[in-house]
Amino acid sequence: MNHPTLLLKMLRRTTLAIAVLGSSPLYAAEVIDQIVAIVDNGAILKSDLDQATQAVKQQLQQQGQKTDGDDTELRKDILNQLILRQAQIEQVKRYGLNTDENALNTAVLTIAQKEGFSSLEAFQKHLDSTGAGRYATLRSQVAEDLNVNKLRQQQVMSRIKISDRDVDNFLKSPQGQIALGNQVKTLHLRITAASTTVSPTEVQQVARQVRDALSNSNDTAGIAKKYSSDTVSVQGVDTGFRALSDMPADLAARVSGLNIGQTTELIQVADGIHILKLLDRQSNEKKTIVQQYQTRHILIQPSEVMSLDDAQQRIEQIYSRLQQGANFAELAATYSTDPGSARNGGSLDWVVPGVMVPEFDKVMQSTAVGHISQPFKTQFGWHILKVDDSRKVDMTQEYQRRLAKQVLGERQFNAEVDSWLREVRANAYVDIKDPTLKDDS
Predict the structure, then answer these.
(1) Shared domain check, 293 and 278
(2) Domain at 244, CATH number
(3) In a domain, 202, yes or no
(4) Is 23 exposed, middle or buried (0-12, 13-18, 19+ CB in 10 A)?
(5) Are residues 296 and 389 in the same domain?
(6) Do residues 335 and 363 both lie within one domain?
(7) Total domain count for the chain?
């Protein structure tokens, strides 16, 4: 077995298995562990490799694959993935990344729920009953995984660059049409052999004749009847409008590049030869209408010299003056501790719900145009806001461009991750102690 990507996916699923396997009789006896590889300042133990190998073997067996016999090559592959993981962990240490406890609890709870436990406490009790410290081992491994993922996100995301031209080109491309859910109306003909004794050459010859006929006619029923025989079957249908995203990828890619009236070349797939003719296309874009609010605010933040209670008292004094007719913009310029908006009379320009924190959004959406809110608190301090105007805006194009950036970003991320991992491995100091586990190259 020499499939690093597949193996890496398997190893990512072995966290729980490795945590529990340590309780098996194989590891119950007290033995002297061995170092099989040194990675920078870290080490990979023989027990680590043994447990990972056993976990991967179990997964392979569940998939119906044989795992008996010499497992040297499998152990080499697994060791290489453990080395890569350890190299990333060493970088995590150098960057000083720490695990967020809430994120860690959520991740462990997800594992617990998959194993049928509704709480961390019950899960801990179960794991520790199989061997002392099993739950702590699991949490440690999950924390490492979270930190490695955080490091990967930070390092790789900084490499991703998507230009406006990239977005424009994607939106015009077949892949862009599919992603946006555009629909096409096609005529679809499928040509297959009527029996296994029919030669592929004969099917190809009929398919070419069918394509020529379809290029000059929209009568799929007539074409199917004319070219069907005892040896070759031709089936035709008018599909009506159908989303490109609902079509098989091979067919969608070919159709999306056609002009109306054009016919695809022969498309050979597992179930026969397909030919499609594009009759019409339409955008299936859903209008994205967003309510915007022209908003200004006054913020009083607590500080070393102002407690939260003092900030509340100050905002209430400002609110009282506003109630008496004071000018909002002038008070914002004088008292607001948000420097970005204070210099503009508290103006935040046009605000879309979801950009601000939930407390701010809720008050903004419930405040009538021309009115001032009562003081309210967020994580940033105490606020008063005023809604000067509101409007509905068609954000469809902006949504499409965001979607395009997301798709392009995911593509670049996957490519850059592979490149970054190769760099991590190349830059790590690695000393494999067991000569039988060294690569032959």
Answers:
(1) no
(2) 3.10.50.40
(3) yes
(4) middle
(5) yes
(6) yes
(7) 2
DSSP state of 137: H
User: CB count, 10 Å around CB of 330?
Assistant: 12
Identify which of 395, 292, 287 has the alpha carbon closest to the alpha carbon of residue 353: 292
What CA–CA distance (Å, rounded) separates 279 from 242? 12
| Gyration radius (Cα) of the chain, Å | 32
353-364: per-residue pLDDT in tens?
Answer: 888 999 999 999
- Asked if 209 and 224 touch (Cβ cutoff 8 Å), the reply is no
Note whether 333 and 346 are within 8 A (CB). Answer: yes
- Give the model confidence (pLDDT) of 395-441 as tens digits: 777 877 887 888 788 878 888 888 899 999 999 999 998 888 887 65
Q: With contact defined as beta carbons under 8 Å apart, do 53 and 78 qualify? A: yes
Residue 347 and residue 340: Cα distance in Å, rounded?
Answer: 9
pTM: predicted TM-score of the whole model, two decimal places: 0.50
Please answer whether residues 410 and 299 qualify as being in contact, where contact means their C-beta atoms are separated by less than 8 angstroms.
Answer: no
Q: CA-CA distances (angstroms) from residue 2 to 6, 76, 142?
A: 9, 9, 26
The range of the structural domain enclosing residue 227 comes to: 183-282
Is there a single domain that holds both residue 360 and residue 306? Answer: yes
pLDDT greater than 80 at residue 60 = no
